Amino acid sequence: xxPQQIDLVKQSWRLIEPHQLQVADLFYTRLFDxxxxxxxxxxxxxxxxxxxxxxxxxxxxxxxxxxxxxxxAVQQLARRHVGYGVQAAHYDTVGDxxxxxxxxxxxxxxxxELLQAWCEAYATLAGAMKAAAWPQRPVAGEWQAQTL
Length: 148
What we know:
Blueprint: H1 3-16, H2 20-34, H3 46-62, H4 71-83, H5 88-106, H6 112-133
């Protein structure tokens, strides 16, 4: 990611922060619209799960300039997710749901440059997570948002 992309993501996060619960709800609604088979992977309190998602995003956004500082925690999270039934292809669906959520949630602030910056951030993160979760398999191409 370029320094400008990192700044765009951080600036937009400030717009998202006050609305985290609504953003998480929008995200999960879109995720399950895209792939209803993912719903059983979330058998707990979805609002609590949304809080965890937002906390993870906040951690990653805050560390975009030094991703190496959060990669061990992110990689551990990816390995745990395998035990929950997460498959490599699910990362693409999550990325699509996130891109759509940002486009809808940020409204006019969701410029093409901003959305591309978020997509770069997510592609980097998802690639690291997939590589940690399935080290025996090469990570297939980079994810590109499909639902903007």
